[in-house]
Specification:
Largest sheet: 2 strands, antiparallel
Number of strands: 6
Number of domains: 2
Distance between the termini: 27 Å
CATH topology of the largest domain: Peroxidase, domain 1
């Protein structure tokens, strides 16, 4: 709002990608991800570049069940089959829609990755919000404490990296919600060694111009921003107006659909009869750089899913320097659901 070495990489090195060392030093990574995707690229770097450039889709519907014998030394995605099964139980309502854990996991992925911009030498998608750096006590992270505890229990059980789990959980939650896209999902990030920087996340009362500028410093266009805020399709507000705590931001909060775009256009900022409209969403919906794309998403689920997936992949890789070492594990996510 939010990548040739694999052909020669030793199998033992692949195994190490599945479990990140919590305090392994992360190199400073100022500059946009695009600056890391120049020159001779390995297949993973090339894939990421192609997705961000629109050459390939950010959605991958490949699905695989966990093999009877799944060795991390042969496939670093192995533990993620079990993580996926656990998250499915944690994120799904009895009616098949996504629940409060899922919608919080979507927000958690944004807040962990989004605390970064092109001038940052640390931060981004590094798992710091899930780790012991006290970020959960920051006011902008109000409401994420419960899902943080849930995700920490998953991490403790399966010993996967914090940074990877924060983004994996976002992508899993997205597909747990009916109609959501299977966003390409990468593992192999390095975990944080310190708290993310402050002042890098959007404010619900900020102007559209400031929000666009904030996201541009992370590498997102106004078009990308229009797609990313659609994640509010499954959101509920709790702290903007405590008198309306729990009100959804669109009329179908258990479904990953485009009703949010129409609901925002047709209601005033604040509490309405059925939905709560964040001031930031309202001003973006009518801003000259955003409004045309916003209206394009109304009634067009495939368009939004594609644009969201592409933009969120960039979000999920903010501040990640070791792009060549990543592995795609989208195949471990659940299949997409329709109503």
């Amino acid at each position: 709002m939010h990548h040739k070495y694999f052909t020669t990489l030793p199998l033992a090195s692949l195994a190490s990608l599945a479990v990140a060392t919590p305090y392994e030093t992360r190199e400073a990574a100022p500059g946009l991800i695009d600056d890391l995707l120049t020159g001779i690229l390995n297949p993973m770097q090339q894939l990421i570049k192609d997705v961000l450039g629109g050459v390939k889709s950010g959605i991958n519907d490949e699905i695989s069940t966990k093999p009877l014998v799944c060795l991390t030394t042969l496939d670093s995605c192995c533990p993620w089959y079990d993580v996926s099964a656990e998250l499915t139980k944690l994120f799904t309502e009895t009616n098949g829609e996504c629940n409060d854990n899922a919608r919080a996991a979507v927000r958690f992925g944004f807040h962990d990755a989004g605390a970064w911009d092109k001038d940052s030498t640390f931060g981004g998608a590094d798992g710091s919000l899930m780790m012991d750096f006290s970020e959960e006590s920051r006011s902008e992270n109000n409401g994420l404490q419960t899902v943080r505890t849930v995700l920490r229990s998953v991490q403790a059980k399966y010993k996967v990296g914090y940074a990877d789990l924060a983004q994996y959980a976002h992508n899993h939650a997205t597909i747990t919600c009916p109609k959501g896209p299977r966003v390409r999902t990468f593992i192999g990030r390095k975990d944080a060694t310190q708290a993310n920087p402050t002042g890098k996340l959007p404010d619900v009362n900020d102007s559209a111009d400031n929000l666009i500028a904030l996201f541009q410093r992370k590498g997102f266009s106004a078009h990308d921003l229009a797609a990313l805020v659609g994640a509010h399709a499954t959101a509920k507000q709790r702290f903007v107006d405590t008198s309306a705590a729990g009100m959804p931001l669109d009329t179908t909060p258990g479904v990953w659909d485009v009703e949010f775009y129409n609901d925002t256009l047709n209601n005033n900022a604040g509490k309405n009869e059925k939905v709560f409209v964040l001031p930031s969403d309202k001003v973006l919906s009518v801003h000259p750089q955003v409004k045309d794309e916003w209206r394009e998403f109304v009634g067009n689920q495939p368009h939004w899913n594609e644009d969201y997936a592409k933009a969120y992949i960039r979000m999920s890789l903010l501040g990640v320097q070791n792009l060549k070492d990543l592995k795609e594990c989208t195949k471990t996510l659940p299949k997409k659901k329709n109503i």
